[in-house]
Amino acid sequence: MWRIEHDPDRSLLELRAHGILGLPDIDALAEAWGKALAATASNPTVALFDLRGLEPLEGDAVDRLRMRVKQPALALAHLERMVILVDSAINTLQQRHALLDPDREFVTRDPDDARTLLWPEP
Predict the structure, then answer these.
(1) Domain spans of the chain?
(2) CA gap 40, 12 in Å, rounded
């Protein structure tokens, strides 16, 4: 299961996924994610991937998520940060392995840390 929400008031794109994500799920998610990215209209945006409750991904699924979902977002200059919130050691390792831009992309298991990373104090 997954869902994507755009909150323009908070300049936030939020992707939540839990359970099992197979390749067809990631393809459908990627299509919806592309529409959500377009909805940001080049306004400064941060992204939260809340993957708590997600079963570890199979090898091809990790690569597909990275290439079809994360890479298009990080290619946008107006995406300021992407925080990936996970709740297991294996998902932490998978997502750290799949990092594309360590200056704008962060993996954490702590919800408070996620908020701080999304909206750091000036």
Answers:
(1) 2-118
(2) 9
